[in-house]
Amino acid sequence: MSNTRSWYLLHFLCGAMTFIPFASEILAQDVAAAVLSAEQQRIEAIAKASRSAVAVFANGGNGGGSGVVISPDGYALTNFHVVQPAGSYMKCSMNDGRLYDAVIVGIDPTGDVAVIKLLGRDDFPTAKMVDSDQVKVGDWCFAVGNPFLLATDFQPTVTYGIVSGTHRYQYPAGTLLEYADCIQTDAAINPGNSGGPLYDANGDLIGVNGRGSFEKRGRVNVGVGYAISINQIKHFLGCLKSGRFVDHATAGFNVGTSEDGRVLVSNILESSDAYRRGLRYDAEVVSFGGRQIDTTNAFKNVLGIYPKGWRVPLTYRYDGKMVSTHVRLTGVHAEEELLELVQRKPKQAPQPKPDDKAPGEKEPEKMPGEKKPPPDRPMPKLPTPGEKPKASPPPPEVAKLIQARRGYANYYFNLRNRERVWKAASANADFSKLQGEWQLTGQHSRGGAVVITLANDKVEGIFPAEKATIDLAKDLDEQLAPAGSGGLLVALHLWRQLLVEGPEKFGDVYYYGTAPQRDIDGLSDVLIATRNVVEMRLAFDPSGGRLQLLEMISDPDEDPCEVRFSDYREVNGRQFPHSLEVRRGDFVYGKLTLNEIKLTPSDEGASK
Amino acid sequence: MRNLRLVLVRWMFVVAFGLLMPNALPAQTSLSGVISDVQPRMVKLYGAGGVQGLEAYQSGFVVSNEGHILTVWSYVLDADVITATLDDGRKLPAEVIGMDPRLEIAVLKVDAQDLAHFNLDEAVALEPGHKVLAFSNLYGVAAGNEPTSVLRGIVSAKSDLAARRGAFETNYRGKVYVLDAMTNNPGAAGGALTNRKGQLAGLLGKELRNSQTNTWLNYAIPVSELVQAVVDIRAGKLRSAARDETVKKPKDAPTLAALGVQLVPDFLPKTPPFVESVRPMSPAAKAGIRPDDLILFVNDQLVPSHKQVVEELTFIDRVDMVRLTIQRGQDLLDVQLSLEP
Known about the structure:
The complex is a heterodimer.
Chain A: H1 2-30, H2 33-52, E1 53-58, E2 64-69, E3 75-78, H3 80-83, E4 89-93, E5 99-108, E6 113-118, E7 140-145, E8 157-170, E9 179-185, E10 197-200, E11 205-212, E12 225-229, H4 230-240, E13 249-250, E14 253-257, E15 263-268, H5 273-276, E16 284-288, E17 291-292, H6 296-303, E18 311-318, E19 321-328, E20 330-331, H7 335-343, H8 396-399, H9 411-425, E21 438-444, E22 449-454, E23 459-462, E24 467-470, H10 488-506, E25 508-517, E26 520-531, E27 534-540, E28 547-553, E29 561-571, E30 574-584, E31 587-599, H11 602-607
Antiparallel strand pairs in A: 1-2, 1-4, 2-3, 3-6, 4-5, 5-6, 7-8, 7-10, 8-9, 9-12, 10-11, 11-12, 13-20, 14-15, 16-17, 16-18, 18-19, 21-22, 21-31, 22-23, 23-24, 25-26, 26-27, 27-28, 28-29, 29-30, 30-31
Chain B: H1 2-38, E1 42-46, E2 57-62, E3 68-72, E4 82-86, E5 91-100, E6 105-110, E7 131-136, E8 149-160, E9 175-179, E10 192-195, E11 200-204, E12 208-210, E13 215-217, E14 219-222, H2 223-234, H3 256-259, E15 261-263, E16 275-278, H4 283-286, E17 294-298, E18 301-302, H5 306-313, E19 322-328, E20 331-337
Antiparallel strand pairs in B: 1-2, 1-4, 2-3, 3-6, 4-5, 5-6, 7-8, 7-10, 8-9, 9-14, 10-11, 11-14, 12-13, 15-16, 17-18, 17-19, 19-20
């Protein structure tokens, strides 16, 4: 009887065991294919995204944060406030289990962005920068990073959430660190996530995390994190790679919202480019940077995403007329002011301490709430507890990539870029042996012949309306002939001197970064060269690298003389432009078409 | 046996995914659509505050075709002018038409018609595990026509709010949805809790910190707990008296002095009527009124300011009882005062 019972029981169990797997198969089939593929897609997105995320550890164990690699040669984004205490050199870990040396490249202190370069590979996994203006509230997103410096095991932390808001404007914390046009998320952003990537559901890069709203809740995530939009960083990237301290921009005018909801100019500097383009007090700002402007915040959002020196489209209505133009943005800070701000130590707010305790186990008495930190502070960089860290000098192969110079985060990168740009521009166009007299003969588009003579010691021109000479012994900024050009002869003189002398000998020549130019697709590399109180901006063709636009700035409060070079053809075996379009502000002086170009070699020129 | 466990684990895994995942996906594709559908109903409210730790803003949402706005009752509403900024950026003055001190809610009204609104009768009930969205202007992040912030989470529990001295200091004693997202940030109170389809389910409550554990509660009050109060307020209860010039006042009315109550000096446009002192042996003393009591209602008429207490008393005949609803700490008390010995 008992045998029978146990036999029966055994059968029952076997039946159950065969039944259960069967049931699970059924249920597996019940999960919609779309669900399973979405799950798979999320897994893949996180796996892909985690490969390009970086944990930044300051040299000597002095805290750290997060970052993300954006190019195979190791350029990575992080926050200014992460690298500020780290100095010029740091260690970065990735989820391949390797620790890489990295050096500082460039800093945008106002926007809280820094570019660093990881060393040792030319095939780093990279994040794809997508269009963050396409991000919508409700989109899934996730942050990957190093909160509470947990990634010492090479495993970045992933936090998932949705986009809670887009185009948010957050006032500057202190005097720096304005977050304009940022992305708000409820994905957990904690101290140590600073500088790390915010990815969309596909694992593509939409922003760099760096700030949160806290107030009395203390310095841990309260569901309100902010990421700098990747579109803003794209604007700054070229400048950040220049090794400079990059400044944000001011438009030279402020706006306010009127009773009827229009955005009006509330004051304007007469020395601003906007004023020269006809903008006046009380004009209505219709669009800026290609975006419709219907609130003051919308204007500030646009202004906050551009670096100093860019030209941005502006449409305004004044005196019954709608005007579309471009305005040159100037810097928010004076140069000295920016340097001082970069060097100033940030005020540290109360912060949780990462140590052997899990974040949730902090002593209640140290819990924030007792002290109210100001709202919206950048996430503090995380100091490691214990003794004061000792910063060790970088290894020699890393030290080669660090070059200190006043005004630069790392002058090394400025030099490399200047070399790169100049090399491309002077390919098949080496004028160093042509130190003699240059004679350019051609036609003015308004009719009449033009003959321009350029030499080391002589500059003169015959134009349809006048004959002009430059006295090279005097300041050049006062000799702006021919009339209406804004200083064409000075511009061409300096251009020739740069071509024959090269950037090393010419004077102060530095790489600005990249900026858009009127009627040129893409972003151009820009060099800025200063000599004899006159500054030149030189923009190079994004595809071929030839010099395309020269602006000679005799007075920063006036319109520069612009010369657009095109129709490059061979002269004496060297590529030489045959078309020069000259304008100043909105006035087009004319187009010079050259039909005879004489370039004399050095010794002949000297003998003349 | 090991096999069986493995099978069970697999089975549980499948069940868990079977239950949780299918909801997520159809919603995921349309989440931004759901959110942009809800946003026009949200209101950013600005009033009193602005001093340390007291934000001068909170959230609300439109609940009628006639411009009624539901929000929490708080110091923010103690302002001379309350401004409601609609989703389209319009800034309108809002008037407090009534409040329920037990629920700590208030109904405001703006002079606007046909606004996008939630219909409270269509609100949905939630259970633990339901996915939710929380809409609010937390931290005052949004201004003008910028949409409010949206957080996502799930209902962790539906529970009585353990409100008591020393824990959560609130008048509300009913059920709340406890949420796993950090919804109740500064400025979020008065925001809307919806399900994943954007259907209204609750009102985000005021910030509550458990003073014993130092933890903040994230919660919303179910609409079902509030709907009757909103109906009452709109029907004329729980609000300040609306009288025109023709209403006759009694010849002899009780005064605060006669009742033995001295209020905190009236130095603000809307000074909250806190009791400063009570004269011994006075009617107020006999009724048990104490310093620091806050007078909320006089004969069931809302009296949000010192001035309105004085005004309301002038409509009571000296021979009649004066009924006061007062708040003492987290307790609400009804007391009756009589000038007759």
